[in-house]
Q: What sequence folds into this?
């Protein structure tokens, strides 16, 4: 009799675990359906990416006005939330930069999950995107389609902003030569020059970039990926690394005299394993649910019904026991 009771208890416990798993599976499919978007239907998000159309959306500011912008770096799963919090703190930010590692699933599907989250932020300034290690190892064509050029630059309010690509390797001599030519075209030096990279690396890793920054008087290099947040000076240029504490956003303000003020406006966003797992699930499952919506809906309903039924049965048998 005791053996039968123990066996029945184990069966009830197993049924309860199975019911919870079914409910969780159904909820996960619903999440993918609700948050999913088909990258084939909308491969770009207006105002996001390294294109001149994005630059044209920036409110024109002259050198007599202060400029505020955001740099967002750190872990996937929290970049859009960090951007949202940063804009809550700095609603007049002229633009933002995602400093790489946009999605572990560096494909059209993974990027679409990020763009879906960013697209829900309104109002939203133009957003530029650097390529990180994950993007460098992923689908290069998908990155170009979603975000445009890997190397990009623009001017605003008398300041020059340089976006360099070191997600896969150190900044190349070709990139530095391009920016040499761009700076040579300026009759008057820009009020301030900012460079954005994915990773700062060590002084030896990016020695050519550090020398370029010294010669061309780059004021600040901002990197969005590092083991720890850091600040140091290399050959007279300020190097700032963010993103070690989950996803975080830094606001920079340049006043008319060229003074630069910076402040942390979001930190530890999406740093937990659940946030990363949820983002990874959406980036992989959303395209499937978008491609087969009826099957996805039927599977979600079936999982929820089976889970609820098993849970009710296990609870009823437990009461009778």
A:
């Amino acid at each position: 009799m005791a053996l039968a009771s123990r066996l029945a208890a184990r069966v009830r416990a197993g049924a309860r675990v199975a019911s919870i798993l079914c409910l969780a599976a159904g909820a996960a499919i619903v999440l993918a359906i609700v948050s999913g978007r088909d990258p084939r239907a909308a491969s770009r998000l207006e105002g996001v990416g390294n294109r001149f159309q994005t630059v044209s959306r920036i409110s024109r500011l002259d050198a007599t006005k202060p400029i505020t912008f955001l740099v967002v770096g750190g872990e996937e799963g929290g970049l859009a939330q960090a951007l949202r919090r940063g804009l809550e703190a700095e609603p007049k930010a002229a633009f933002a930069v995602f400093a790489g590692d946009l999605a572990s699933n560096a494909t059209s599907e993974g990027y679409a999950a990020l763009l879906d989250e960013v697209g829900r932020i309104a109002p939203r300034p133009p957003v530029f995107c650097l390529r990180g290690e994950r993007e460098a190892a992923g689908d290069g064509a998908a990155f170009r389609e979603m975000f445009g050029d890997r190397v990009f630059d623009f001017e605003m309010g008398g300041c020059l902003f340089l976006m360099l690509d070191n997600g896969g390797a150190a900044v190349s001599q070709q990139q530095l030569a391009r920016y040499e030519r761009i700076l040579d075209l300026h009759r008057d030096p820009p009020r301030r020059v900012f460079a954005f990279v994915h990773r700062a690396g060590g002084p030896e890793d990016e020695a050519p970039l550090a020398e370029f920054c010294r010669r061309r008087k780059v004021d600040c290099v901002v990197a969005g990926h590092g083991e720890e947040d850091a600040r140091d000076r290399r050959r007279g240029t300020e190097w700032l690394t963010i993103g070690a504490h989950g996803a975080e956003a830094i606001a920079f303000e340049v006043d008319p005299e060229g003074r630069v003020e910076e402040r942390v406006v979001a930190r530890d966003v999406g740093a937990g394993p659940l946030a990363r797992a949820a983002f990874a699930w959406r980036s992989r499952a959303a395209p499937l649910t978008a491609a087969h919506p009826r099957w996805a809906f039927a599977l979600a309903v079936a999982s929820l019904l089976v889970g609820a039924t098993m849970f009710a049965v296990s609870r009823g048998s437990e009461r009778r026991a």
Summary: Residues 2-35 form the longest helix (34 residues). The chain has ten helices and eleven strands. Confidence is low (pLDDT under 50) at residues 37-42. Residues 72 and 249 are 4 Å apart (CA to CA).
